[in-house]
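Letters spell out the chain; backbone shape is given numerically. Take this protein:
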Amino acid sequence: MPNLNGLLEASLFVENLSRARDFYQQIVGLEKLQESEAGCVFVVAKGQLLLLISREKARVPSKTPGGEVPACLGKAGEALGAGHIAFRVAEAEFDAWRSSLESQGVEVLSEVAWEQGARSLYFRDPDGHLLELATPGLWGLHS
């Protein structure tokens, strides 16, 4: 089986993005890496990220130039599982991960080729959590 190289990101779904952003910046003291209308990305520690995602935006797939990120929430707003986490994987093991998942009957929901050169595979665990395997380079992180 291919190896995991760590936890890359965890996501929280928020009702009020600006309120949540201010809390995590001002109260928790996290450094904001990136922000869009869909959410904010914060650095928790070297190579570890916290994503705050607008509950509204989490209900629909996110289209990127390199592919589609599946929705994290159902249309009625219920979480499809508790949320989303991403694991780091080596670029050299990316295809082996896809093969391993498929050989075990796990449906790969989508694959995204990110502009920075990273790649991601998305799938769900038995409870519906959206899981991601991401190669180096996502969010500009190369370690």
Q: What stands out?
A: The mean pLDDT is 84. Residues 56 and 89 are 29 Å apart (CA to CA).
